[in-house]
Amino acid sequence: MAGKLHGKVALVTGASSGIGEATALALAAEGAYVALAARRVERLEAVVKRIEDSGGQAIAIIADVANEKQTQEMVQAAHTKWGHLDILVNNAGLMLLGPIEGADTEDWRRMVNVNLLGLMYATHAVLPIMKGQSGGHIVNISSVAGRTITPGNAVYNTTKWGVGAFSEALRQEVHAHHIRVTIIEPGVVETELVEHITDPKAKEETQQFYQAIHGLQSEDIAAAIVYAVTQPPHVSVNEILIRPTEQDR
Ligand SMILES: NC(=O)c1ccc[n+]([C@@H]2O[C@H](COP(=O)([O-])OP(=O)(O)OC[C@H]3O[C@@H](n4cnc5c(N)ncnc54)[C@H](OP(=O)(O)O)[C@@H]3O)[C@@H](O)[C@H]2O)c1
């Protein structure tokens, strides 16, 4: 398809729902060839079909980003399919909120493994490819929770602050190779993210917080990602913080 990203290859993690799904569709609408990665293959294949039905090119890659080997193979599969890899969107994530005291520490491991280590593994695997091409763009999905601290969000906050720290160090290490790094920091986006919270009280409170305001849609975040990755080569959009107008914190 013609578009500002015609012929570019993008890999989007967590593309089976929410922001990742919308981003895959938006990148494809701008002409990118898109590799969609996640664990739920039927959901991925449905998005691939939508892209193909619109005249685009896409593939589904089953990968658990918490698994370093699977994440390396995910990057290799996307690169092998089209022979280059221009854009990596590290979007896969979990928001398992709840207080520190009495928390199920398995929730902590899952968030650290997916939100932080998964993003790091994918970045590690893609860097030799992007350096070899003398360019690329890595988009890391953080959150308002990567900028402001709230009780009950400790470990989610920690992972998203980690995304910010890792991304800025990465930017400083790779800018000379014409690899751009962008952090996207959404506020409330209406996706299934909240439904996966395991602490019943935290889930109910978060649902109420989300329902009290007119939240963002996944397409709003996808549009910001498309903006960042379609700038001219000398422009590096490093950070985009987007809240719903009605969100106070
Ligand atoms: N919604 C919000 O209000 C909001 C606000 C700020 C930031 N964010 C961030 O936006 C990102 C996307 O979240 P969303 O709101 O779009 O929620 P979502 O609809 O629940 O999407 C999360 C995605 O991550 C994938 N995922 C989860 N664990 C994975 C794993 N181990 N390996 C591979 N993929 C995995 C899921 O796919 P599978 O289950 O199929 O693997 C799914 O595609 C997250 O990083 C989240 O922290 C969201």
Task: Draw up the topology in text.
Layout: E1 9-13, H1 18-29, E2 33-38, H2 41-53, E3 58-62, H3 68-82, E4 87-90, H4 105-133, E5 136-141, H5 154-174, E6 179-186, H6 200-211, H7 218-229, E7 239-242
Parallel strand pairs: 1-2, 1-4, 2-3, 4-5, 5-6, 6-7
Helix pairs in contact: 1-2, 1-7, 3-4, 4-5
Walkthrough of the structure:
The chain is of the alpha/beta class and 249 residues long. A seven-stranded parallel β-sheet has the order 3-2-1-4-5-6-7, sandwiched between helices. It has seven helices and seven strands, in the order E-H-E-H-E-H-E-H-E-H-E-H-H-E. The protein has a single domain, classed as NAD(P)-binding Rossmann-like Domain (Rossmann fold, 3-Layer(aba) Sandwich), CATH 3.40.50.720. The chain has helices at 18-29, 41-53, 68-82, 105-133, 154-174, 200-211, 218-229; strands at residues 9-13, 33-38, 58-62, 87-90, 136-141, 179-186, 239-242. The mean pLDDT is 98. Helix 1 crosses helix 7. The longest helix has 29 residues, at 105-133. Strand 1 (9-13), helix 1 (18-29) and strand 2 form a beta-alpha-beta unit. The protein binds NADP nicotinamide-adenine-dinucleotide phosphate (NAP). NADP nicotinamide-adenine-dinucleotide phosphate binds at residues 13-14, 16-20, 38-40, 43, 63-66, 91-95, 114, 141, 143, 186, 188-189, 191-193. The site of NADP nicotinamide-adenine-dinucleotide phosphate (NAP) has 29 residues, from helix 1.
